[in-house]
Fold choline-phosphate cytidylyltransferase.
Amino acid sequence: MARIPANRRIGGAKVGGDVPSVTTAEESPAISLESESSGDRPVRVYADGIYDLFHFGHARALEQAKKLFPNTYLLVGCCNDEITHKYKGKTVMTESERYESLRHCKWVDEVIPDAPWVLTQEFIDKHKIDYVAHDALPYADASGAGNDVYEFVKAIGKFKETKRTDSISTSDLIMRILKDYNKYVMRNLARGYSRKDLGVSYVKEKQLRVNMGITKLREKVKEHQEKLHTVAKTAGMNPNEWLEKWVENADRWVAGFLEKFEESCHIMETAIKDRIQESLRKQSSKELNASILEEPVKTQQQKEEPAGREINPQLMLCRYADVKAIGKFKETKRTDSISTSDLIMRILKDYNKYVMRNLARGYSRKDLGVSYVKEKQLRVNMGITKLREKVKEHQEKLHTVAKTAGMNPNEWLEKWVENADRWVAGFLEKFEESCHIMETAIKDRIQESLRKQSSKELNASILEEPVAS
């Protein structure tokens, strides 16, 4: 449900950690039928996962766990950010947001934060867990051996199967946003988010705003055309008779389009000039103030901190004016720092990371709306990222060994340099392999395209039919 089934993953199993030693069902304390059916003591069922972007697929699985017995106390474990990012990857929601989402699910009796990645007998005893509920697909554990996370629980007879909900998962939701990246950026820009909030360049923002204007213009043209056809049919006239009037109106629409486009270009040009001048003024002012007050100029990180988003005035129009007018409106309080638009913003801002995340989970570039070249670039980046993590891990091990031996880490420098040669060689080999794969793939695509073209031309010459354009 919340983890990645081993048979759906690409790129191997999770790394780090160990699976507890397996005891037999005879060695584990048995749950009597009397205790399961008794109304005095509820059966304690445990379900765990990540529960990022909590959706109805998660809720249905928890509902199944809650209804396993007539009297069930459902405990739900949720892994924290540190362990999740290490073994699974980047999440959209923070650990506190994921915990809070679970607390508001009606099937959940208790949320256990900082849940372990692999269950142990000690954890089961501590929380007095009778059964563990999850779907039956094998989930790769944290040992790197590709074992099932729930192998230990299944072996001691404490596993209860739940069914997955098809066509919905956190990765699927992320995929939908990534596939329609431009549309969601335009959506959030219209809701008052800034380009910095969304990680969008200045030029990209202006292009999208122009597109928003053109889209609205097309909608108006379509609406106007539909009205003309409706009026013509109502009057019992042929819509073609209205063609002359439509042409007359079309002139005004074209003029409006050109005016809108010219206005957008002018706004863009003016904005670019204003930004350059404003940047020069700020730089001069900061340097002057810094020299007078002997205060440092703001860091780049401080410069890039996004300001609070401005709410679009159009979105402030009250949808409940009529309800308020008749005295049937009751106010509820909003929860700060969390909204659908905020979650979408986080995905858009780290677009490349989430594309890489979903590629690693077996999604294709077409699923994500990514070009062929972009996909290859990201896969190379994924390889380099993994290599950096290995180098960092190796370096930390050297420092740990040096401290344990009471030696100065600098004394290990020579050994580190020797090992570094191997890492560099591994990097170059990985990079060369990636370039070779890309080159081969490009050649294959060109040859395949040429074969198809030749085949079409041959068929057309035999059948004396023109090749389709």
